[in-house]
Structures are given as structure tokens and as C-alpha cells.
Amino acid sequence: MIRWIVKIILFPISLLLSILTAFLTFILGIGTTILYFLMLMCIVAAIGSFMQKDVSLGIEALIIGFLVSPYGIPMVGATVIAFLKGINEAIKSI
Fold first, then answer.
1. Does Membrane count among this protein's keywords (predicted)?
2. CA–CA gap between residue 94 and residue 81 (Å, rounded)
């Protein structure tokens, strides 16, 4: 009996987490695409810098390119979404 009351109380939170997860996944997909193009531009700029013998600027461009690549900033977003999904699944399993 208490289990059903807890489920009823936590249902709005679970619904909110489901909607938030779907929205954040959509935004992450768009943001990752934009950052992918930015990463490509950074890599091209780094190659140009190395060809012009400006090694420090090329290394900086490569570091920025890595941060905006799918293994950089978007991975933080994916981790947050996975954390929210885990909380939502824990609420649903009660």
C-alpha cells in the first residue's frame, strides 16, 4: 500500500525527468553537430598554422578542437543525461 502512495507521489518527478531527458538529448544532438563543424575548422586552422611554422598556435587549435570534439564538451552533456536517466529508472523501479 505504501509503495503505491510513493509511486503516485514520485510520478510527476519521473514525468519531468523523462521530458527533461528527451529535451536534453535533442539539444545535445544539435549541439554536437555544431561543435563537430567547429572542430573541423579548428583542425584545418591547426594544419594551416603548422604549415606557417607557428607551432604554438597550431597546438592551441588542436586543444580547442579536442575540447569541442565529441570526446570533449559533448561527452559531459552525455554523462549528465545518463545520470538523469539513471535517477529516472531508479524512481520507476520503486
1. yes
2. 20
Instruction: Give 65-83 as a DSSP string.
Output: HHHTSTTSHHHHHHHHHHH
Residues 4 and 87: their CA atoms lie apart, in Å, by 19
Residue 52's identity, in one-letter code, is: Q
**pLDDT tens for each residue of 47-56:** 999 999 999 9
The answer to whether residue 2 scores a pLDDT higher than 90 is: no
Taking the C-alpha atoms of residue 17 and residue 46, their distance in angstroms, rounded to an integer, is 41
- Dihedral angle, C-alpha 23, 67, 86, 20, nearest 10 °: -10
Neighbours of 74 (CB within 10 A): 20
29, amino acid identity = G
d(CA 55, CA 46): 8
Q: Contact 88/18 with Cβ under 8 angstroms? A: yes
CA gap 45, 38 in Å, rounded: 10
